Amino acid sequence: MLGPDVIRAGGSLEAAPESLDSAYPSAMNWGLLRRARIIASAAIAAAAFSACSSAIESNPEAPETPVVSTAPAPLGTVSSVAELQEAFVDAGGDCEGPLEDINRVTAAMGSGVCPDSGTVLALYLDAESAKASVATTMRALDRIGSTMILGDNWSINPAASDREGTAEIAENLGAQMLESEATPVRSLDEAFTLEQAAQAYDEADGTDCANPHDVSGDGSVMECGDLTLIVRADSTLETEALRQMTADALDLKQGGVPIVGRRHIVAVYDKGVDIERVARQIDGVTPSD
To answer: What is the pLDDT of residue 254?
Structure first.
């Protein structure tokens, strides 16, 4: 049996401890040490987290939460012209009040004209019918150019006052915007607008008429300086009647010579213009014809 002395490695003797508790920590002491270590570790972690948070808050380059924007939902298929009108107004179009000229578009199931702007709304049986009708309309308006909005089973033919915002309206409705440029006009017979009649006259080397301005207030008479008037005429009148109307209704200045077309009259006051040659070029007639 071992006595109070214990043989150490190397053969030396050492006094043994009086009890094991004096040489080794007790279970309770171990628990206290372990708890102290856990508390110290938690304190260090908290301090580190606080330091990181402060660094993020003070860093102006820290990423921000992105803001997600949603695009307007497409209008899709509509079941009535009234529904299309409401959507058109919500998208920014001008179409308040009851529609006029109901069922004007013969190829459509239903249609109507906005009372103030003149924009035409049309509803079709299906997408194919809508595409075919829009294509036909744009071909018919090829000479003056056109802008239209094509949806799933509907179309919108914006009035001139709405055309500047057509792209935005089409985007808000989730639809296509279709656009065609006006075909250059070379004769009065091809001209559908006063601007086109002025273009034809200008191209024929008449008085400079590239930028005519409205002098009537209603778009029925345009002027190029003080030398040329472009007047919208009634296409059902005969040439002789048009000449008489020009002289009577417009009270032509002395020396003014009219060049008469199917839809327009060009009243020329520029003595330097070869009236007969210009008239032949733009398919118009003069009083001498």
So the answer is: 60
Per-residue model confidence (pLDDT) at position 27 = 41
Compute the chain's Rg from CA coordinates.
Answer: 44
Distances in Å between the Cα of 114 and the Cα atoms of 30, 73, 99, 120, 132 are 90, 24, 5, 6, 22
Element (H, E) at 98: none
SS3 content of the chain, % helix, strand, coil (to 5): 35, 15, 45
Return all residues near 138 (Cβ < 8 A) that are at least 6 apart.
146, 148, 178, 180
Token digits of residue 255: 């020396």
> DSSP H helical segments within the chain, as ranges?
20-23, 27-58, 81-90, 127-140, 166-173, 194-203, 239-250, 275-281
CA dist., res. 263 & res. 94, Å (int):
30
For residue 285, the 8-state DSSP code is B
Helix (H, G, I), strand (E, B) or coil at 154: strand
Which pLDDT belongs to residue 289? 64
What pLDDT, on the 0 to 100 scale, is given for residue 85? Answer: 96
pLDDT at 192: 76
What span, in angstroms and rounded, lies between the C-alpha atoms of 63 and 24? 54
CB of 231 within 8 A of CB of 264?
A: yes
CB atoms < 10 A from the CB of 155, how many? 26
Cα angle: 55, vertex 60, 64; to 5 degrees: 100
d(CA 180, CA 139): 9
- Tens digit of each residue's pLDDT (9 = 90 or more) over 83-99: 999 999 999 999 999 99
Tell me which residues of the chain have a pLDDT lower than 70.
Answer: 1-72, 143, 161-162, 206, 233-255, 289
pTM of the model: 0.52
Going by C-alpha positions, the residue among 270, 191, 273, 164 that lies closest to residue 223 is: 270
| Residue 134 confidence (pLDDT) | 94
Read off the DSSP letter of residue 287: T
Supply 286's token pair.
Answer: 């003069």
